[in-house]
Every structure is written in C-alpha cells, then in structure tokens.
C-alpha cells in the first residue's frame, strides 16, 4: 500500500500550533454495541456539515482509491483517512473547525461526542496489515484537554469531550477548533500507514 516516493505533506492553511501535555486526563473510548449492529443508524446523528475538516497530511491516491480526510465523515467503513508521512505518523493532526450555521444545518447541534472506527476497516485483512491508532491527543482551541485511548478493534467506538469535567456544560460555537494529534499506534503486520476509517462528530 505504501509508495514512499509518492508520499507528501498537505499543509493546513489554518493549522494550530499544539503541543502534547503529559498531565492531562486519559479517556478510554467505549465500544458502541448498538453501532456494531447497525452503525449507519448511528450515523444519522452525524453533524459533519457543521465543520470544516482538514489534516496535516494524507496518503496520495492509489488508482481510484482516495485516502483524504473527507473519508473520516462519509458513510463508509470501507474508506479511510491515511496519514501521509514516513513512519507511523506520530504528531499528524486532524482539525475540525465549527462553521457558522446555515439553513441546511442550523437544526443540528454538536454535543461533543465522536464515533470512531479504527484502522482501515474495509475487511479484516486490510485492518490487520495497516497500523491503527492507540492514543490520540484531543485539543480544544489549541489547549490539550485529554488523550483518548482507542481499543484495537474494528467495531465502532465512542468518546466525548464531555468526559472531562470542564466540558460537561460547554456550549460549542462557530470558530471553535477541535484537533486530534496521532500519538501512539498499534503497528500493522505489513505496513506503517496509520489509518482511521471514521472520526464522526455526533449531534444531540
């Protein structure tokens, strides 16, 4: 899957300058058993239209297969965002910026929760061969608020910014930036490419 000579970095136009803090809470994502049965039903709660989504890099397309950040919020567990740097991609960043509401999305309110599908979940073989995320640092407007530890499973998982006391009653607004920094990875059996099939913001 990896073509090292073709890998490149896509710079964020509005990139945050973030740094990892060691003394923040560690949150463990929970397996979403409802989503395991029919995660597309859960997807109806998605609110990705409220966000501008970008990433610090992605793997170039291979044939007609894209690995861009937009794959994180489509309805397909068979697609994925794949980081685009040498090695496992430690420090690569995914950025969600809340947009001004429009008539199309004003009824949706982001509630701080994300649905995750770890790895390249197209099938068990692609999932095992490629690296998955073990820990991902979560930043809110540039501040490292917690680190999420994901399970090494293909099933959907959930975590919420509201798992941190300071965000229990937070009202999210246009201009807020939520970014995720790849920090620790589960190695793939063949490739070093770190993959995420979904990182979907959910509404109330």
Descriptive overview:
It is built from two helices and eleven strands. The longest helix is centred in the N-terminal third of the chain and has 11 residues, at 33-43. With 204 residues, it is mainly beta. A hairpin with a 2-residue loop joins strand 7 and strand 8. The model is unreliable at 2-17 (pLDDT under 50).
Helix and strand layout, with pairings?
Layout: E1 26-28, E2 30-31, H1 33-43, E3 51-55, E4 81-82, E5 93-98, E6 110-118, H2 124-129, E7 132-140, E8 143-149, E9 157-160, E10 177-186, E11 195-203
Parallel strand pairs: 1-8
Antiparallel strand pairs: 2-9, 3-5, 4-11, 5-10, 6-9, 6-11, 7-8, 7-10
Strand content: 25-35%
Helix vs. strand class: mainly beta
Strands ordered across the widest β-sheet: 1-8-7-10-5-3
Mean pLDDT: 84
Number of E strands? 11
**Count of DSSP-assigned helices:** 2
User: Which descriptor suits the 3D outline?
Assistant: globular
| Distance, first to last CA | 38 Å
Unreliable segments of 5+ consecutive residues: 2-17
Estimate the helix proportion, in percent.
under 10%
Order of helices and strands: EEHEEEEHEEEEE
Reported for the largest beta sheet, the result is:
6 strands, mixed
Integer-rounded radius of gyration: 16 Å
């Amino acid at each position: 899957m990896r073509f090292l000579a073709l890998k490149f970095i896509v710079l964020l136009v509005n990139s945050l300058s973030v740094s990892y803090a060691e003394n923040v809470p560690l949150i463990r994502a929970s397996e979403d058993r409802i989503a395991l049965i029919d995660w597309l039903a859960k997807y109806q709660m998605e609110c990705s239209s409220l966000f501008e989504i970008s990433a610090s890099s992605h793997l170039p397309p291979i044939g007609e297969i894209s690995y861009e950040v937009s794959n994180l919020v489509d309805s397909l567990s068979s697609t994925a965002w794949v980081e685009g740097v040498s090695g496992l991609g430690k420090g690569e960043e995914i950025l969600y910026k809340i947009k001004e509401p429009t008539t199309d999305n004003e009824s949706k309110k982001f509630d701080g929760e994300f649905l995750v599908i770890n790895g390249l979940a197209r099938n068990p073989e692609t999932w095992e061969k490629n690296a998955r995320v073990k820990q991902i640092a979560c930043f809110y407007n540039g501040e490292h608020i917690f680190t999420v530890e994901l399970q090494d499973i293909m099933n959907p998982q959930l975590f919420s910014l509201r798992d941190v006391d300071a965000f229990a009653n937070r009202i999210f607004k246009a201009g807020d930036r939520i970014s995720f920094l790849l920090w620790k990875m589960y190695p793939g059996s063949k490739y070093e490419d770190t993959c995420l099939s979904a990182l979907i913001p959910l509404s109330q």
